[in-house]
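Budget justification, computational time. The allocation requested in the original proposal was used primarily to generate structure tokens for proteins on the priority list. As evidence of use, we reproduce two of the resulting records. The first is shown immediately below.
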Amino acid sequence: MSTKEIHGLFGDEEVLKKSAKALVAKGVHVKDVFSPFPIHGIDPIIGVPPTRLHIAGFIYGLCGMSLAMFMVWFTIIMDWPMDIGGKPNFSLLVNLPSFVPLIFEMTVFCAAHGMAVTYMIRNTIYPGKKNWNPDLRTTDDKFLIQIDLDENSISLDEIESILKETGAEEITKK
């Protein structure tokens, strides 16, 4: 059986960060890191690109604001004109201050739900999906570095020695 992945298990996140720095300095591509909580500063070390979720949130917010303004225009101005302040007014711009709370709420609603759905699609999280965590101890108190050997030109023995030197408590080959 050929080894395709190697996992280094650590007991402390600072030791894991030191190991990840040493691996990347030697030219090893770290596939993923598993931890019970987010580790500040690990993304730039292992080369994870910054997220663009905020751009998607802005676009979803604009869509929500446009949808709310259309809804207000259609229901209050076009379909069922209302008397606001005792006089009928058939202009969206004049009545707009009255509907700012509604438009704001719809903007936030669409941005939040759009970002949540985008996050789940991007990370392939859906109901019924099988667990793909390589070691369940990483949900409790351990930290794991996952290295795919097909993505690296460095040998298995060298990766293993770097992990041992930098403080890995356990090394698993799969």
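The second record produced under the same allocation is shown here.
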Amino acid sequence: MRASLRTGLLLLVPLVVWELLSRIGPWPHWLFPGPLAVAGSLGRMLADGRLGAATGRSLARLAQGYTFSAVAGVPFGVLLARSELVRGGLRPIVLGLQALPSICWLPLAILWFGLSETAILFVVVMGSVFAIAIATEDAVSGVDPLLLRAAGTLGIRGARFHGGVLLPAALPGILTGLKLGWSFAWRALMAGELLFVAGGLGQLLQNGRELLDAAQVMGVMLAIVAIGVAIDRVLFRVVELRVRRRWGLVEEPA
């Protein structure tokens, strides 16, 4: 309770400064609205259903693209870690593609798939799959070699080795990679929706710019941040904590 009160007071200070700047600052109020105007815009978007519909559409796209990235990225990362031939030939390429900003994939996606949902999903996948693969490779490479030798001595090989020894041992690192991949996927989705009119939060953001409605732009930005924090806290933090407790990497609560 005290922590929540302290956090609320700490948040209140920048909000008050923001409101004062919007009223007495050098910028016109319509160009730099304060938190009250932004909250009002958020309330209107919630009331008329625009924010809910755009959020649902963005999250549906994210779920599709991110699921594909995870399903493809984790096995590819294991392959990179376990095969010297694949690692030597493909790792430099994967590292290079990972450094490529996801928005750079959009022109190619439009050429290949046209102005369609598939184009945005392609950008989301290409923006996250390589980060997941590289993180998975690091996690698998970091597994204790004694554990791997012990499994080999006991005759555990093939699917039993990968499903019962290797992946469980690397799971904390893989989860970190999945969390990283989700953040890349979320950014890629917003970039794609900004440039491609197809609904979603990105389009709502773009509509605010076209209407010169800075309060709507800031409101949608706050919604994007809030959704990102919520997914991190509600989904990844809980799963990550449970796995780390199960693996004895953090202490059980007293």
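A brief technical remark on that second record: The longest helix spans residues 158-195.
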